[in-house]
Amino acid sequence: MGKDNTYIVYGSDGYLKSKFVGDLLKKIDIKQPCNLTTFKEDFELYEIIDATQTIPFAEEKRCVVVYNFAWESLTKKEVAGFLTFLANVSDQSFLIFLRTEPKLNAAATKLLNSFGEFATLKELNAMTGLALINFVISEFEASGIKISRVCASSLTNLCSLNLHFIMLEISKLCAYANAFQKNVIEQSDIDLMIKTNLEQSAFEISKAIVQGDLKLAHKTLSGMMKNNGPPSLIVAAISTLFIDLLRTKIASLCKITPETFSADFADVYKGKMFRIQNAYKLASKYTLNSIILCIDILSALDVDLKNHSDDSQTSIQEVLCRIHMCLTP
């Protein structure tokens, strides 16, 4: 008992966690609304126990879904009682615990091993790199549509590697392909159907600069200006990456891991572990002083644009060149 009808779902990817719970609820298939109990806030352990032990009405099973139950805040006596409860969950009841934060704290993680004997532990983390590309390809193939690895990679980058947005775009591209009776998604289709947002375009400028590709940075900037991107917002978005670099550079110098950094800045980077990992990687290539100097240059540009906006594109182009020189040995 317990193992097959009790689940603890956690991890960094909100989309995968929500999808897993949704699919599980469909499989359980509770027909009577009164047999499905959901706890989201302001609840106690005894309420979870009472709901789980309630006899189902007019069908053979019931289900209890608990959001963000902080088992690490239980006393030792309460933990013992909780384990006894998990060990004796009735076969007629399904119990699902979902932690929505991207990373469990150390105390919560420590208790997971003791729960594993009585529950299925499901850790669902954000996919990156080849795993994410393969996932995108498989999603298209499930709809009878092909997409190359290059195009799949382009799609994930345009969506900032966010699986929720990626799935929305896949759905839209599949509908587009079906409407035009296409069985292959090409880059031209992606360019047509997916509008690059300001934040992503500015990130591409920043990424090009820190990777030494000044020409690509200027090309991307020109495209944004042609689309009437607000100069002050473009500069603010570019600055975001350099703020990430500053934070992660200091964290790295202090021997702070990306996981600890993510927990400390959960309010800023919730669900964006890829952004933290990317910043750690890029920041390792530059000195702290050079990163600070780039931020100073961007700050001065921001002030200048607010006071003189006659030729904002020229000002931003000049700053990109100055930042490039700061980062070039």
Rg result: 25 Å
Helix content: 55-70%
**Unreliable parts:** none
Largest sheet: 5 strands, parallel
Question: Going across the major beta sheet, what is the strand order?
Answer: 2-3-4-1-5
Order of helices and strands: EHEHEHEHEHEHHEHHHHHHHHH
Strand elements, count:
7
User: How does the helix and strand content classify structurally?
Assistant: alpha/beta
Counted by DSSP, the helix tally is 16
Give the termini separation. 63 Å
Round the mean pLDDT to the nearest integer and report it: 88
**What is the general shape?**
globular
Share of residues in strands: 5-15%
List keywords for this structure.
single chain, 329 residues, alpha/beta, five-stranded parallel sheet, 9% strand
Can you put this structure into words, describing what you see?
With 329 residues, the protein is α/β, with parallel strands linked by helices. Helix content is 61%, strand content 9%. The chain has 16 helices and seven strands. The longest helix is centred in the last third of the chain and has 23 residues, at 231-253. Strand 3, helix 3 (76-87) and strand 4 (93-98) form a beta-alpha-beta unit. The protein has a five-stranded parallel sheet, sandwiched between helices. The protein has a two-stranded parallel ribbon with strand order 6-7. Helix 15 (288-307) runs antiparallel to helix 16.
